[in-house]
Amino acid sequence: MEVIIQPDPQAASAVAARIISHTLRDKPNAVLGLATGSTPILLYNELVRMHRAGYLDFSQVTTFNLDEYVGLQPAHPASYYSFMFEHLFNHINVKRENINIPNGLADDIPGHCRAYEERIKACGGIDLQILGVGTEGHIGFNEPTSSLGSRTRSKTLTPRTRFDNAPYFGSESKVPRHVITMGIGTIMEARTVVLIAYGSSKANAIAQTVEGPVSSMMPASILQMHPVAKVITDEAAASQLRNTSYYRWVYEQKPEWQQF
């Protein structure tokens, strides 16, 4: 696991965007796994800027989103379908037929989840997966105690997650109780994983993810087992890490061919 600490969220988002840029340079038809929520907005803004400047071409890219609420219409302003088009898809040249987002209105949700997994496999797997992390350590909507080998499925949200997401719905009572999410096993099959986290509210989750034991109680900690996992934070999110001086030294000593 590589830990990259940047001064602020904007700088951290720029590093994540450059990693994606390198991926698309090396593989123009890459498969990207995408996250939602407030954390990746700056990253998506940077990707849009780079695309408009002529540095990024998404015309051959395929995308898979991590999750979606069950029972929410795509047009609902808090749906992840709406989020992705508002913050990214409407502003880049990705083909609509190459966009994959879980369908929270599917008549057969277990069947839809199996088909989502098969679609990922048919596209050759995910080359780079973007993740955020919840205050309780969830990745996607894999809440604490989720199986570390889980696949795409429906999940029941914890009260804390519903509380954290309440601002997007106006009140906690309006937050759906169920979601579709990629499983931890699905996420771990991505060739590269980039987790981004900003703010002091994520400091404990980051400390436990990077330096704590691997446990289903802290789902993001499984990334310690991933062969190419990069954790990119601002100073506030890194504030509870013990080995920050080492992480900074490693990043500063990168050979030229590893820099981004």
CATH class wording: Alpha Beta
Enumerate how many helices there are, as a single number. Answer: 8
Identify the CATH architecture: 3-Layer(aba) Sandwich
Molecular shape: globular
For the record, give the distance between the C-alpha atoms at the N and C termini, rounded to a whole number. Answer: 16 Å
Task: Round the Cα radius of gyration to an integer and report it.
Answer: 17 Å
What's the pLDDT, averaged over the residues? 96
| Main beta sheet | 7 strands, parallel
The CATH topology annotation reads as Rossmann fold
In terms of DSSP E residues, the strand content is: 15-25%
What is the domain total for the residues? 1
Share of helix among residues?
25-40%
Category from helices, strands and their pairing: alpha/beta
Task: Identify low-pLDDT runs.
Answer: none
- Helix and strand pattern: EHEHEEHEHEEHEHEHEH
Main sheet: strand order: 1-10-9-6-2-3-5
Q: What is the number of beta strands? A: 10
